[in-house]
Amino acid sequence: MRKKAIIEALGGSFSEEELKKSLSRIDIIGDLAVVKLPRVWEGRGHEIGELLLSRMTRVKGIFRQTTAACRGEKVRGLEWLAGKEETTTIYKEHGCQFRLDIAKVYFSPRLSYERLRIAKLATSGEFIVNMFAGIGTFSIVIAKKRAGVRVYSIDKSKAAFDFMVENVALNGLNGVVVPIHGDAKEVAAGLRGMADRVLMPLPELVYEYLPYGVACLREEGWIHLYTHQEGTSRKQAVEEARRKIRNRIEEFTVVKEISGRPVRSVGRRTYQIAVDARIVGGS
Ligand SMILES: C[S@@+](CC[C@H](N)C(=O)[O-])C[C@H]1O[C@@H](n2cnc3c(N)ncnc32)[C@H](O)[C@@H]1O
């Protein structure tokens, strides 16, 4: 995508600063683009959509995000702006393919680096539990990059689960990634003391579901979780998230090692933070 060319083309009618801000928030998912437009531009959505479409050669459909995805299974609201109206697409990342419907499931291309980072931390032979797996992205990237792992991959949304089943097959990982449809709290109860590594990629439920994630671990293991944290700076937000997560885990077990890194900005002075914790005495 040539942001500079788009900015130039729209430049006569919109302020450059606002355009840059808006374009930096475009998500490209397969052949679809999702854009967040400032309220003052909403009436010109189709015009902007057509322009974006003409400048983004691989993109076939443009949508505006109307509401953010929030707690639980709720996906982001979308309004069609230009190009194809069909919301199903195929997204490719790290040698894996994912079929999804952006109107029915939650998916963010912005976690791509995190998916590879966690895959590189996993070692062969590990039993991994992904508590909020969505369409299977983390689970499939890990299994593709680390031979010999087995990933139990849970999601409560039927739509996400169905796409996950399809994506596991699409990537040749039947029996390696095991899709499970259900509430992570209930499924985790049946996986007590089995996992070497647990993933919790859903900030809204992390504090509530942490005890269930930790209970899946063997005597010693890793938990990787994502949280939203306010802070005066990224560094301060990371420190605060690390402190709060450590305190939460220490309510019921021992933290041997804990680190954090900022993933992205998710609002004014609010950041998504990845926290990795090594835990002893999990189960
Ligand atoms: C943020 S998305 C996962 C994103 C995904 N890991 C990725 O890389 O794109 C969170 C997922 O958690 C699922 N979810 C919400 N509440 C749940 C629960 N109680 N148990 C299991 N899954 C849940 C949602 O359906 C959604 O698919």
CATH superfamily of the largest domain: Vaccinia Virus protein VP39
Quick one: how many beta strands?
Answer: 13
Oligomer: single chain
Class inferred from helices and paired strands: alpha/beta
Strand order, largest beta sheet: 9-8-7-10-11-13-12
Helical residues, percent: 25-40%
CATH top level class name of the largest domain? Alpha Beta
What's the domain count?
Answer: 2
Strand content: 25-35%
**Average pLDDT:** 91
Largest sheet features: 7 strands, mixed
Give me the CATH fold name of the largest domain.
Rossmann fold
What ligands can be seen in this structure?
Answer: S-adenosylmethionine
The span between the termini is 48 Å
Poorly predicted regions are: none
Note the total helix count. 9
Order of helices and strands: HHEEHEEEEHEHEHEHEHEHEE
Specify Rg, calculated over alpha carbons.
20 Å
Which of globular, elongated, flat, extended, rod-shaped describes the shape?
A: globular
3D structure, described in words:
The protein is of the alpha/beta class. It has two domains: 3-86, 2-Layer Sandwich (GMP Synthetase, Chain A, domain 3); 106-280, 3-Layer(aba) Sandwich (Rossmann fold), CATH 3.40.50.150. Helix content is 33%, strand content 33%. It is built from nine helices and 13 strands. It has helices at 3-10, 16-23, 45-55, 112-121, 137-145, 158-170, 184-189, 206-216, 234-249; strands spanning 27-29, 32-35, 61-67, 77-83, 88-93, 96-101, 127-130, 150-155, 177-181, 195-200, 217-230, 254-267, 270-280. Strands 9-8-7-10-11-13-12 form a seven-stranded mixed beta sheet, sandwiched between helices. Helix 8 links the parallel strand 10 and strand 11. Helix 4 (112-121) crosses helix 5. The radius of gyration is 20 Å and the shape is globular. The termini are far apart. 40% of the residues are buried. The model has no long low-confidence stretch (mean pLDDT 91). The chain binds S-adenosylmethionine (SAM). The site of S-adenosylmethionine has 21 residues, from helix 5 and strand 8.
